Amino acid sequence: MDKPALRKKYKALREDLSLKQIDDFSMAIANQTLSLPIWEHTFYHIFLSIKELKEINTDYILNILSGKDKNIVISKCKFKDTSLINYLLTDNTVIKKSAWGIPEPVDGIEIDDKKIDVVFVPLLAFDKQGNRVGYGKGFYDNFLANCKPETIKIGLSLFSVEENIEGIYQGDIKLDYCVTPDTIYTF
Questions:
Q1: 106, 119, 121, 160: which one has the fewest Cβ atoms less than 10 Å from its Cβ?
Q2: d(CA 81, CA 41)
Q3: Of the candidates 70, 63, 102, 64, which has an alpha carbon nearest to the alpha carbon of residue 88?
Q4: Beta bridge partners of 186
Q5: Once rounded to an integer, what is the mean pLDDT over residues 147-175?
Q6: Are the C-beta atoms of 147 and 113 separated by less than 8 Å?
Q7: What is the pLDDT of residues 4-22, one digit of tens each?
Q8: pTM tops 0.90, yes or no
Q9: Cα dihedral angle (26, 72, 98, 144), rounded to 10 degrees?
């Protein structure tokens, strides 16, 4: 299936999930992340969930990161050039929803892309080759292209793997892992 068809399919599948299902799946995904070989690093980037779009609830992973005393990095979208500005999440970080409904830091301590060791990547679908389908704006592909080559890229998916995503282009950045409620895929 191509990206537009997969976007439509998985948005509809997410819409059909109850809030309890999303919460249960999100907790299962967070528990799965504990068995990934990633916990010796320092800077972990994670997205804040858009609950209205029934995204995975990343609060559980945030709690794990905080409990392991990791540096947590969150983003603010720059729509003019589809880039992300990354900020260290601290006790003083003010989070506000953008005009697009995205929870974002208002400001804070900026973190360079090259400092980030692990990125938890939002997605709608992924395939057996580590390709992903996001919302189609390219924010994460642009951001990941600026990270150091050894940055670990981990997709978080409420659903299982697709066989193949058609229409992959050269700028698409592949995942290293994708975590679902039942399985960890390694690419």
A1: 106
A2: 29
A3: 70
A4: 177
A5: 94
A6: yes
A7: 999 999 999 999 999 999 9
A8: yes
A9: -90
